[in-house]
Amino acid sequence: MTACNQTYLLPQCAARSVGPANQLFIQLIQTLVAAHCSLPQPGIWPKDHGPTAEKSDDEVVDFIVVGAGSAGCVVANRLSENPRWKVLLVEYGGDPPIESEIPAMFSASQRTEFDWQFAAESDTACKGLNGSCYWPRGKVLGGSSAINLMIYVRGNVHDFNSWAALGNKGWDFKSVLPFFKKSENNHFPQFVHQDNGTYHSDAGEMNIDFYGDSPFANVFINAGMEDNYKFINDINADEHIGYTKVQGTCYQGRRQSTAKAFLVPVKDRQNLRIVKYGLVQKILLNKHNRAYGIIYKRNGKTIKAYAKREVIMSGGTIMTPVVLMLSGIGPKEHLEKHKIPVKCDLPVGKNLIDHIYTLILFRFDPTPTDPNAAYDNVFNLAIHNTGGLTSVGISTLCAFINTDRAAKFPNIQLMYFWFTKNSPNLQAYIKTRQFSYEIAKKLTEANQNHDIGAVLVTLLHPKSKGYIHLRSTSIKDKPHIKPKYFSKKRDYDIMIKAIRDQISYVKSKSYSAKHAELISFKLADCEGIEFDTDAYWKCYIGYMSATLYHPVGTCKMSGLHSDHEAVVDDRLRVRGVHGLRIIDASIMPRITSGNTNAPSIMIGEKGVAMVIEDNSSSSPTEN
What we know:
Elements: H1 11-14, H2 20-38, H3 50-55, E1 59-66, H4 72-79, E2 87-90, E3 118-120, E4 133-135, H5 157-165, H6 173-183, E5 184-186, H7 189-193, E6 206-210, H8 217-226, E7 242-245, E8 247-248, E9 250-251, E10 254-255, H9 258-263, E11 272-275, E12 279-285, E13 291-298, E14 301-313, H10 316-326, E15 329-330, H11 332-337, E16 344-345, E17 356-364, H12 373-384, E18 397-401, E19 412-419, H13 424-433, H14 437-447, E20 451-459, E21 467-469, E22 480-482, H15 489-503, H16 509-512, E23 517-518, H17 534-544, E24 545-547, E25 580-582, H18 597-615
Helix pairs in contact: 4-18, 6-18, 15-17
């Protein structure tokens, strides 16, 4: 192809045509253009009600939903099913970019206008990422479901039964399973029909399917089998320890965000109004602590909207507590420090829990690659909805293990990346993660003659908890995020044991067949510490650990009045405030065993069912 762009032409480029070849070529170009246009364009997304809101007087609706993320899109959809209810959904972002649609480009929206671009503050992690614990969160219709890895993992029976054991009635696994299924349109019939449909459904709005396979997954799977782990077909059923190829929120080679699943099909409902680029400043509370509306800004204009029934916060684990605190709902001492009048003294922003991983990397014998693969991938994506761009590669492989082999439920999740020799994907990964110069240089050099396999050793149930505090009284000032990673020694102990288990795989037949070697780095603070001691790994973790992008818990749910860490009750109503609920991942009392997008969608389904139930027989409330 390059030769045709030179000053001379190869014979096949200069040759004349008698017609059919030209017609075929033109048809191919037309097909590619049409296929590009089949990627969602602005016209498929809901109309922006923002310009109308700017010109109109203050708006009155039945429900206001703040945040069009993983849960918020579900909430807006379900509430607007009742044609008698007017629903206003306010989102700070706009329509997703085309790159969001392509699974292989899942990280392309990070560090862009579609990302809040938060940063956590930690002195025990992220030192190898130029000292910054970067926390991307979706600022776009669909929220983080529009920029994430699309992994569909629900968690397990123990996760939700433990929520119920904390006093949260109706949040045990048996009770939440129908709400997982309500959203699900699973395109793998074997899962849908197994066990008489106990675990899966094909009747919901959210398309769930398998990605394409990666040829490198078996290197890790076979090593796990040698270590006596089993392969699990369905991690979202009744087995929880082993290796598995996960499904994703994807279908026909395209991302399925909650915006696409829950907003696009109902965008013409007359009772659903969606404001884009609206930044909510605060919740309006009357003298009786009833939430009756919000104040938001759009294009520099301050706009008020009023809710006759409820205000529902679905802003996510970071922005929901920020908006609450700016509204006077939060820790009294912290609010008074910022001279914010205290409406309700609650531990908002506390109980911050996140999945933290440590990255370990191996060099392997190089794999022959096709120099035309990139062109083939583009063609197959556009024409057949297949190929490398429709997958997230080896990331479809996960393992769920426990460092205590006798345990029935996992405490570690393993995720994987693979970079073939001289891979441009490695350079993109280095840029996205912003590795320090020394680490980036070592990885680049290793990749010149070898494939690189990466294992993300993830702590599923950290005991360490952090908090979120306001930086100022301006909504535009990003908050202080203090995850307090590894503040509990037990977290180090489990992580170090899991790392040692994984590096022992270099002796496995699977790794040995590809002459695997652990990649070591010169890390300033670790120089002089004996390799493979606890002290060494503790130092290594400080450099090579980072967030798996799963923050939860900052508005903890508890049905127990004696739980002084709780912000909402088990019906997600904010304690001490009427007409205000929180429906997003911030309500999780404990983090689930795996990626948190699927549980967030379930929270949206179960939470909005409670809203509908509580409002079906009641009349609107006057402010």
